[in-house]
Amino acid sequence: MSTVYDPHSPHADAFIHHEEILDTLAYADRCSKDKNFCLDLVRKAREMKGLTHREASVLLAAEDVDVIEAIYGLAREIKDRIYGQRIVLFAPLYLSNYCINGCVYCPYHAKNHHIPRKKLTQEEIVREVTALQDMGHKRLALETGEDPVNNPIDYVLESIHTIYSIKHKNGAIRRVNVNIAATTVENYRKLKEAGIGTYILFQETYHRKNYEALHPTGPKHDYAYHTEAMDRAMTGGIDDVGIGVLFGLNQYRYDFAGLLMHKEHLEAVFGVGPHTISVPRIRPADDISVSSFPNAISDDLFKKIVAILRITVPYTGIIISTRESARTRKAVLEVGVSQISGASRTSVGGYAEEEAEDSSQFEVNDNRTLDQVINWLLTDGYIPSFCTACYRAGRTGDRFMSLAKTGAISNCCQPNALLTLKEYLMDYASEATRKKGLEVIERELLHIPSLKARGLCEQYLKKIEQGERDFRF
Ligand code: SF4
Ligand code: SF4
Hints:
The protein is α/β, with parallel strands linked by helices.
C-alpha cells in the first residue's frame, strides 16, 4: 500500500491506514504496561474532550485492575453527566431480505437458497408499523438487504413516506433512521429529502483483507466504496450518520482503532463526527454458527469496549440491540450505552405475524415485550425515552454537537424524555408499569436544570393527561 495516513483524505486506505493501525496497536502494547500513563489518560478523558484513537487503544490494551476500575468509574460519571438516567428506545423494521451480497456472517447472503425471501408491500408495511405503534414505538431503524431490482431506492423512499403517513390511534413514527447498503450521493440526497433521521451503515470490519474475504461476492465486496459511504452521505446532506463494527468478525483491537479513525476522519473533513456508534456482536442465525468466528469477544471485554468508547466519544450515542441478553444490556447501560432496541423482530414481517421468525437475520437474545423492557428500565432507575425531537427541530450535525458539548441539550433531553414517557404510560403501558413510570416522572422533573423548562414541562405533562400529544423542547 503506497498511501500515507491522512485523516483528511477522501480515500479509505489513507484515513483507515493499515500501517497506522498496526503502529497504534504496537504503541498500545508498549504504553498500556505503564500504569501511571494509563491513569493520566483517564484523567485527560475526564475533561470530556475525548481521546485519540491511539490513546483509546492504549486503554483498551490495559490490563491493570486499577486502570480498568478507573475507566469504569469515569464512564459512569460521563454517562451520568451527559445522558443522566435517560435511555432512548427504538425498533428495527426489516423491509426486505432479498440480497445480492455474499456476507459470510449473515443468513440473507445470496447463496442461502432455503431461507424464505420476503419483501413487504406498502400494505404490509402499514400492518407492521401499526403493530409497532400499538406497542408504543416512535423511532424506527429501517433495514433492507442490497438488491437493486427488489429493493431499489424508490422502494425505500416510498416505504419511508408510508411509514411517516400512518397515524393509528395516538401512534406515530416520528423518526425513521435508515440502514441500507452504501449508495450514491444522489441517493443519499433523496433519503435526506425523504426526512430520514440518521443514516446507519456498519463497516463490519476495517481490516481490508479480512473485509474482502468476509464479503466475497456482490457490490459490498468493494471495501473502498463501502468505507467511503459516510463521506458520500454527508456530501448528500445527511448530517447525522451512525457507524459501527460487527465485533467478532476480526481482531477487536484493530477494528476498535479503525472505528475511531473513521470518526476522526469525519470530524476532520466535515467538522462533525458520527451521531451514533453501534456495538453489535456476532450472533448465530439460520446457516451461521458463531463457532466459525474465533475472534468472538467475551462479555467482560464487550463491557470494557463500551466503557472506553463512552469516555473517548462522550457526545456520541452508543447503541445496543436485542442481540444482547438482558444481563449484558444491563451491564453496558451502566457504563455507556444510551440507546437500545426493545421487543425487536429481526425478520421481515415479524411484528404483524409471529411465524415470520424463520426468516430472521440473527437470533434475538432479549425476548421481552416493550412493556417488560420499560418496566425493567424504570425499576433500575432509568428513564425510558421515546424522544425524537432533535431532528424534527433541525438540531442535527454540528448544531446538535455544539448544544451537546455546552451541556445545553440537557434542557431538551430531560423534559422530552419525561413527556414521551408520559405518552407511553397513558397510551400503552400495563398498570404496573404506569404506576412505576409516574413515580419516576415526578422524581425526575426535579432534574430539569432550567426552572423555566421545568415549569413548561409540568404544563405539557398535564395536557398529555388531558389527551393532547406531541409536545417537545
Ligand atoms: Fe445482505 Fe446486509 Fe446480510 Fe450482507 S449483511 S448479506 S448486505 S443483508
Ligand atoms: Fe436525543 Fe435530542 Fe431527544 Fe435529547 S432532545 S434525547 S438529543 S433527540
